[in-house]
Design a protein that fits this description.
Elements lengths: L2 H14 L5 H13 L3 H6 L7 H15 L4 H5 L1 E4 L2 E4 L12 H10 L6 E6 L5 H9 L5 E7 L2 H13 L6 E5 L14 E6 L6 H5 L20 H10 L6 E7 L5 H11 L4 E6 L5 E8 L1
Parallel strand pairs: 3-4, 3-6, 4-5, 6-7
Antiparallel strand pairs: 1-2, 7-9, 8-9
Helix pairs in contact: 1-2, 1-4, 2-4, 6-7, 10-11
Length: 285
Amino acid sequence: MTIDQALQINIKKLNQKRIDRPDLEAELLLASVLKQDRVFLLAHGEKKLTICQRLKYRHLIAKKINPWPTAYLTGHQEFFGLDFNVNNRTLIPRPETELLVESALKIIPNNSPTEIIEVGTGSGCIIISVARNNPNPQTNYQAIEISRGAIKMARQNAQRHGLDKTIKFTLGSLLTPISSKNFSNSLIILANLPYLTPDQFTTSPSIQREPQSALISGVDGLDLYRELLQQVTRINAKDITLIMEIDPAQPPIITQLAKKYWPNSKTEVLKDFCGQDRIMIIKIK
């Protein structure tokens, strides 16, 4: 069986099971088996697959139909122009989260010392993308994660992108590891914490294979963000900026909390590519 024949057969299978973009999914899975990119498939359609390759491909197609996220099957996901290792201990990086990275890069001062801390780093894709694209050499980076499996993956990704000496990874819950620390510089806190409700998780088939602990946060999805904001009140820094990914329904409640803790704080909400409120920025002087 050739590459072209394998693709034709399995695109048809995925299409029959109503898998979105069956041609793309079939190509990504076969490229993973061959350890090549999709361009290779197009250029070498006549190349015959070995028995081992055919069996591996069949296995991945079966899991995709099950359905498993493609990123978990290939072990990779692209984010902000970089390739990241992922597994079922980490949330799969999503395009809308790139807006969080873009927002951070716009806010980071050009030439003054800055501390950047990400809570709930998961695969590390956010802080690694920021560190790779931030031109300010006077920036210190720290990533905090409660899951040992996730922080192991984040460290691997940092090493892969040459940032294992640049980013300090710390095991812990939210800001607990730095709760007694004083910062003389500007502090930027990045957070893409779980923000879904149990009902949202249950009614979203596409995320059923991802870790619930990385998605659900209490009845209204805000338990962890409430805890984070309370912890920030105990942090001392020159100034603090929080940049958070949220559910579109949450800005009013988060704004209310921000004004409760910091009456003079400034809040801003940014929309994602679909016009939904997605990123919330709180500036505290």
